[in-house]
Specification:
By secondary structure, the chain is an alpha+beta fold. Helix 4 packs across helix 6. The chain is globular.
């Protein structure tokens, strides 16, 4: 199966304690009102508080939802909602019963604000990927990636193939 990642632009409410600590240390008490030009024209507070993308409508449309008579748009064999614990934890939980694993060859680029927080906190990739989503808010395993990508585009969800399920756990 192929892994399709659904892009997320914010923190999804996870690891915010680390974000606040970094902001206070590096930008002071008024950090939420500061604009860091390398991150755009939005205040740090607004960047950190961007609302999470909610994928339930898309997933319901993709799978047929609760209507067992509705034909799914694509076959879905696994779904991981990437929140606290990041991709390693959530993908591992999705695949644990099967003994299978994943290989991510083309990850979704993490949001710039997340990369900045990783830098400010001094987190290596393993720590950052274990704390934050680092790009996708959801990952779908499917034998029909083209259909998933077409459905995502039709729903305005940014998605791409990021890897594959492997025999190796």
């Amino acid at each position: 199966d192929t892994l399709v990642g659904l892009a997320e632009h914010g923190f999804r409410s996870n690891g915010i304690t680390d974000v606040r600590k970094a902001m206070l240390e590096h930008y002071g008490n008024d950090w939420h009102n500061k604009v860091v030009r390398e991150l755009g024209d939005i205040s740090l507070g607004r960047l950190v508080q961007r609302p999470s993308i909610i994928y339930s409508g898309f997933m319901s449309e993709l799978t047929g939802g609760h209507d067992i008579d509705k034909e799914p748009l694509a076959k879905v064999t696994g779904v991981a909602h990437i929140t606290g614990g990041g991709q390693p934890s959530k993908l591992g939980r999705m695949l644990e019963p099967s003994g299978l694993g994943v290989e991510i060859a083309d990850p979704i680029e993490p949001p710039e604000i997340m990369l900045k927080m990783q830098e400010l906190r001094g987190f290596d990739d393993r720590t950052a990927y274990g704390k934050w989503h680092m790009g996708p808010g959801m990952v779908i395993a499917t034998p029909e990636p083209k259909k998933v990508l077409e459905a995502a585009e039709a729903q305005g969800v940014v998605a791409k193939e990021i890897g594959r399920v492997t025999e190796k756990s």
